[in-house]
Amino acid sequence: MASTEEESLAVEYITSRGSVLPESPEEFATGVCFNMWARRLWPYRELERGGVLFWYESPSTAIVWKSLVDQVIRFGYDTKGVVESRLTREFGYVDTEQPYFEDGPEKGYCVAYKVMPLQRLNLPKPTDFTFPRQGWLRIDVLVAAEWIGQTIALGLDITLDDLAPAGALGESLQQ
């Protein structure tokens, strides 16, 4: 499967949500997502437009969406009113009555983003896997293979099939 250079460089993450996420792509795409932290936690600086974001839904204990980060803003704030104003200015309506906003720190750092849904999924969390407390996980080769069931190119555009499309692998490698 060929991929563009942009796709092979995209960083992949899993983010966790404690509530049921929308099932329709249209409804999922309309939401504004944000994290509010008292300290600049990872991935405050790392999340970028073009990154792939998988969505873990705690109630179903499964990854339920694969999406592409379409827009990202990050900023420090002294009051939640600053967060509400900035998110409203950048994205339009923001639900400030949700428990995450209400229970969030009074001052700190916010990273907010919009995503484009790519695929609805149902990838149950492996039973022995513990999700990080802060709710974010960078996908590495192990997580990709054990949970998401995919391989990561790691920036290489060559596979063993390319090295040995026919015949013994050892013969092709010796050539």
Task: Write a structural description.
This protein is of the alpha+beta class and 175 residues long. The chain has a single domain (9-139), classed as Archaeosine Trna-guanine Transglycosylase, Chain: A, domain 4, CATH 2.30.130. The chain is 26% helix and 30% strand. It has 7 helices and 6 strands; from the N terminus they run αβαβββααββααα. The protein has helices spanning 5-9, 25-30, 80-91, 99-103, 141-148, 160-163, 169-174; strands spanning 12-17, 33-37, 52-57, 62-77, 108-124, 136-138. It has a 6-stranded mixed β-sheet with strand order 2-5-4-3-1-6. A hairpin with a 4-residue loop joins β3 and β4 (62-77). The longest helix is centred in the middle third of the chain and has 12 residues, at 80-91. The radius of gyration is 19 Å and the shape is globular. Mean pLDDT is 84; it is low at 1-8, 151-160 and 169-175.
Helix content range: 25-40%
**Kindly state the mean pLDDT as a whole number?**
84
Domain unit count? 1
CATH top level label: Mainly Beta
Distance separating the two termini: 24 Å
How large is the count of helical segments?
7
Radius of gyration: 19 Å
Structural class: alpha+beta
Topology, number of strands? 6
Q: What name does the CATH topology carry?
A: Archaeosine Trna-guanine Transglycosylase, Chain: A, domain 4
Which ranges are low-confidence, i.e. pLDDT below 50, for 5 or more consecutive residues? 1-8, 151-160, 169-175
Question: What strand line-up does the widest sheet have?
Answer: 2-5-4-3-1-6
**SSE string, helix = H, strand = E?**
HEHEEEHHEEHHH
CATH architecture: Roll
* Share of β-strand residues: 25-35%
Overall geometry = globular
Q: For the report, how would you describe the main beta sheet?
A: 6 strands, mixed
